[in-house]
Every structure is written in structure tokens, then in C-alpha cells.
From TrEMBL:
Organism: Sedimentimonas flavescens
Domain of life (superkingdom): Bacteria
Signal peptide: 1-20
Subcellular location field: Cell outer membrane
Transmembrane in keyword set: yes
Main location: membrane
Keyword Membrane in annotation: yes
Keywords: Cell outer membrane, Membrane, Signal, Transmembrane, Transmembrane beta strand
Membrane disposition: Multi-pass membrane protein
Matches recorded under InterPro entries: OMPP1/FadL/TodX
Protein name: Long-chain fatty acid transport protein
Family membership: Belongs to the OmpP1/FadL family.
Any Pfam family matching the protein: Toluene_X
Amino acid sequence: MGRVLLSASAVALCASAVNAGGIERSAQSVALLFEEGNYIEFNMGRVKPEVSGTQMFPYPSAAFVGADSGDMTENYNTYSLGFKLKVNEKLDFALIVDEPIGADVSYPMTGYLYGGSTADVNALATTALLRYKLPNNFSVIGGVRAIKTSGRVHLFTGYDMQTSSETDFGYVVGVAWEKPEIAARVALTYNSAVSHKFDATEVAGGFTFDTEFETDIPQSILLEGQTGIAKDTLVFGSVRWVDWSAFDISPYMYTNAPSNHFKDALVSYEDDTITYTLGVGRRFNQNWSGAVFVSHEAGTGGYAGNLGPTDGATALGLAATYTRDNLKITGGVRYVMIGDTKTEVPSAFLGGQCPNQDCGTFAEFEDNTAIAFGLRVGYSF
């Protein structure tokens, strides 16, 4: 039972869509380490978000009030590759290549003030993991993670910034317990923050500057588990905390421009996020199994950034797996209801004359959604 159901539940847990801050694209699951024997898999996804808002602030004139931003997110693809090797009866090794974060922002020219603004973040992570089995069904997990990241932004004000491509390292540690007879497993893992120091080229006021700034891809904790509850039926779930309040993109010239009275970051988040997932998987016969799941990330309230106007999400998903001999093919779909939010008026528009550094609402983003499709092909050998 466990082997067939695991493939469906894993895709349900990992299906990518709009998540925390609008830039997270991988949950860093260690489920690959628990595949039987030697195993390799390839994953691909297609995500189609639709995020739009309405301008509420009369700048530069009252004619802008009510302007529709249009869909400011672009469709994107995600890919990952995983390889697991059974070294011996006690030791397993896994190598995972995925895209932990990313952004594809493009405001169309609709009369909305931010029209023409764009932002892109690209990242590729390579994670090497070891799992060592202890007595009483316990095991310890450890590994190292390298992330290569770059980004660029263009704002309607004429400000441009492009970073260097930087590769830096973090680590993974964890512990797990399992009882294969009932397909039960619990794994708790910690991913450290990865600190980047970027060289940047900034264009502001018609002048070009070579600058530097630092950004942390935040630390996270993931608790994931599953257990059989009846013949051919499995319940699974996860809880994930991410330290998004530590994420900050503050290029030097942008942050220290005379018009940036409060030295606001280009991108930052006030609060951390916790995402909950719960689902049920069932094997229908020797070849077919499926899973349904729901996930929820509560909104944090307050203002969202104009380059990431989302706040929490609730998602519903389905996955089905076909197994034949050593081959497993899984397809999944996820529908995401993105949390409503408001963005804040930049302090420059009011000359920094904002009570308690609150410049009021710039735009409202409501009733936005995303749909994600995923495909996984796995082979045991």
C-alpha cells in the first residue's frame, strides 16, 4: 500500500503555485529519501496565476482612481529532478535540483500607475541529503544546499536594478520516524537561511550606479507525516513555517534615495507564514491510486508590496498515479484562492508626510486565483 500511495500524496504536497510572498515555489520536502531502493524522478509544473487590483489613490490625479492594474503576474513553468540511492541497509543518499523561489511580475499598461513595472527573480537549488537509520524506526537527516539566485526590476518611475548571479550555501538537518507496516511516517526538517551578497547595477534619476546589498533566503521548518487509516487508504499532511519577516531586498540607491523618506525596502514582509496541508490518498487497484488535499496559509494582514500583492491562500488539489512495474507517472492539479490584500502608497508620493509612517492605501487586490498543473515521472531500479 505505502509505495503506491506515497507517489500521489507527494505530488499533492509539492504542487507549486502562488505561495508566501508570491515567490516561493518549492516546499523542500525530504519525501524522496523514503522511496524504496534506488529511485529517480523528474517533475514539471505549469502555473497560471491571475492577480489584479484597483488603484484607490488619486496620484498623479483623481483620474487614476479606479484604474485596473490588469493581470500583473505571468504564467510560468517549474522543474525539478530528484535522485535517491540506497547506499546500504543503514544509509540513503538523495540529490535534489529544484527552484526554491521565483518571481515573474509584469504590470500591463492599463492606466494604472505601476503600468510597465516588471520584476524577475530566478533561483536554482541543489540539495544533497543523507539519511542514517537508527534503532526503533528512527532516522536522522542531514545535508547541504547550494542556491544560485539573480534578479532584476524596472519601475514606472524609471528606476532599474539588475543583480549579479550569486551562489551561496545553507544546510538541512532533521529527524524521522516510520512504521512501514501501516505506511506511517513523520519527518521534521530544518532548512537554514542562505545569505547572498549581490553586486547590483542601479539606474536612478538617469544615472547608473554600481552598488552592493545583502538578502537572505529565509530559514524554514517543515513537519510532514502520513499514516494508513484503513485498507488501501492513507491520510497525509504537513505544517511549514517560513521566516519571511527576515526577507528583505534593499538595493542601496533605492533605499537611500532622497524621495524614500522612510528608507523602505524594495521588497519586504512584516510577518512569517505558516502553511497547513491535509489530504487523503487511496489505492484503487494494483495500477491506480489517487489523492485529494486542501492547504491553507493564513493572511498576515497589513499592507502587501506593490511587486507582490498577495496575502495568504487556500488551495484544493487532486492527484492520480499510474504504476506499472518500476515506473510511476503522477499528474496533479491545484486550484488556489489567493488572499485579498491592500498595497500602501509609497512615501515619496506624499513627501514623507505620513502619520506614523502609514501613507494609506494605494490599491486593493481582491478575488484573485491561480491554477497549477503538475506531472511527475518516477523510476525505481
